[in-house]
Structures are given as C-alpha cells and as structure tokens.
Amino acid sequence: MSFFMGREDIVLENIDSSHYEKMFEMFIYKYSIMKASFPNMPDRFMDKELIYKLFDNILEDNFGIIALQDDKVLGYLMGYQIDEFKSSKRGVFTPEWAFAYLDFDIFEIIQKNAFSKWKKNKCYNHTITNYTTEEKFFEKIFWDGYGMMVIDAVSEIKKIEDNHKKDLVFKRSTIDDIDEIEKILDEHCDYMSSSPVFLKADKSDNRKELEKIYGSEKEILWKAMSGRDTLGIMKTVDGGGEGSLTVKDENNLGIGSTHVKEKFQNMGVGKFMIKNIFDYAKENNYKKLSVDFESFNVQARKFWLKYFEPVCFSMMRRIDDRV
User: Which Pfam families match (predicted)?
Assistant: First the structure.
C-alpha cells in the first residue's frame, strides 16, 4: 500500500522486509553518533542480523510506516501497541531502534500518519525512546506535547568514596530473607504509588517476584544491614536490567529494584549500597553499570544522577481519549 501525503513527491508505505537494509543504515548512523559519546555501549547493535530480528519482532503484530522518495528511504517509524500502557488505555511504545529520519519535516509526515492509525486502534498515548545525543529531537518533541517519562543512564566502573556508616554490612540476600524483604518491597510499592510518583505498583506480585529472583542465575538481591536490621535493598541483573535494549550486553551490570526503608533514608545507606555495587562490578570484570528510573520519581532521580550519565530519554504524549 502506498499513498501521497504532505509533499507530493514523498510516498508512504507500510514497512516490509524489503526496506530493512536502508532502515538499518539510517539507524546505524544514529547509533554511531551516540557511541562516539558513550564508547562502552555494545558493538552488537552494529549487527545487521540482530536489528533485522528486532524489525521482524515489532512487525509481527504491529505496523510500521516508511517514507520514500524515488526509492530513497527518508525515514521510518514503528511501535508496539500495548494494552493498559502506563494507564488504563492502550498505548504505543517506540524503542530507540524503531525510528529514524532525515529531517523533522519527514518525521512529522510519518508521525501524523502513524498517529491516525494508532488512534483508530484505540491507542491514546505514545512513548518514544531516543539517545540523549539527539538534543534537537527532544527540543522538537517537547514542543509537540511530549514530556519526560523514563531515563536510562550508564556509568563506567569507578571508585565511590564513602567514609560513612562503618557499622554497615553489605551482603547477598537469600530465600531465607523472603518475609523480611517482601515487607520492604511492599513499602517500596506504597512509595511508588503515592505522591509525587503515582505509578501503579501491585504488592500482590512481590512474593512471586522475590521467588523468581532467588531462583535466578542472573539476578542478585543485595541488602544493607546494621546489626540484625535490614536498612535497604538493591537488585542487580547480569547483562542489564529492565531498561533500554541498547544498554544490555554481557559487559553490563544492570541495577533494578532499589529501596531504603523510610526511617533510614538520608543517612547514607543508598551511597553505601551503590559503592558496594561498583566494587562488585569491578571485581567481576564488568565494563559498565546501568540503571533506569522515572524522571518524576524525584528522590530516585536526584540519587542516580549523582553516579550515572543519561544515555536514553523516553518521552510520552497523551491524547484526549474523548476525541
């Protein structure tokens, strides 16, 4: 299917595998710019076969739009359509590899067409992830009504100086701790679902999640202790956590669920834990650490940005579901 829209010489088509090679070239150009600023990011994203598989995956149950001019690819846009995405409504998520464009005029033409189709499928919000090196892109979509949602950040392995809390102990949690740790996760859920964060957090899943972690070879739940009291927890994931696919590779240690009990906050417990995670990463030959967090989680944002540099921003726009 092809049709004209906006400029008379631009043709929009539904993406198929015949477009992949030119799409890959556009993505690699964007990725190489980011990698010049973040040299420890994985080389595997330069692998054509991997990116083609990602294209196949997203198009299996979704559509993509590509802009062509005399068979030259000017830009493309895809997205996963997801039920109850960040709300009770359906939405669309566009990862960092699922779009590229030559200029903003092209992006706007593709975006308008895609939004029209997503709206017909009852999708009422759109989240799009891009590399922080794409500064003009973020300036543009801010004016288009998008706001910050999630930050993916990375750090090279470094020494964190911490002269406080000599009495603290940092150790791996085991299944024997599950009752105690479940209470800490419940407190974390209360925090995440309250002001100013207001994210849905279901306590009923916590025990099952802990059982999964304790049975995993890649996930470790750490705890900071003083005497017999557990003050806080921090999860690590070999290869990366739940964030952007870009940061995930065998040289990366991802940080997941982190919480310090309310009565022990602002006492250096978080710094003590992150220091020990950096030390663990160095001892086990990781090249970098990564973490992702919601930008409106002010407490977490202030903490993580002391130690990590943002590499991806995920921005969201909601549309009026009464339209």
Answer: Acetyltransf_1 (PF00583)
Q: Is the dihedral of CA 49, 52, 58, 60 positive or negative?
A: negative
105 and 213 within one domain: no
CB 76 within 8 A of CB 100: yes
Q: What is the mean pLDDT of residues 83-97?
A: 96
Whether the pLDDT of residue 144 is over 60: the answer is: yes
- Tokens linked to 94: 């566009």
Residues 6+ apart with CB under 8 A from 39: none
Does residue 239 contact residue 251 with C-beta atoms inside 8 Å? no
CB 126 within 8 A of CB 91: yes
Listing DSSP states for 154-199 in one string gives EEE--PPP--S-TT-EEEE--GGGHHHHHHHHHHHHHHHHSTTT--
- Mean pLDDT throughout 212-221? 96
Are 16 and 127 part of one and the same domain? yes
- The pTM of this model reads 0.94
Strand partners, 7: 5
Q: How confident is the model at residue 160 (pLDDT cuts 50, 70, 90)?
A: very high
- Note the helical H segments in the chain: 20-37, 48-60, 104-120, 135-143, 178-193, 206-214, 269-283, 298-304
CATH number of the domain enclosing 56: 3.40.630.30
What single string gives the DSSP state of each residue in 37-48?
A: H-TTS-GGGG-H
Tell whether 215 and 254 lie within a shared domain.
yes
By the 8 A CB rule, do 74 and 106 touch?
Answer: yes
Structure tokens belonging to residue 253 = 């240690």
- What integer is the mean pLDDT of 146-165? 91
Give burial (CB, 10 Å; 0-12/13-18/19+) of 1: exposed
Contact 314, 292 (CB under 8 A): no
What average pLDDT does this structure show over 142-148? 97
Strand partners, 81: 92
Is the residue at 21 inside a domain?
yes
- Domain containing 216 equals 156-313
In a domain, 308, yes or no: yes
CA proximity to 294, closest of 224, 169, 193: 193
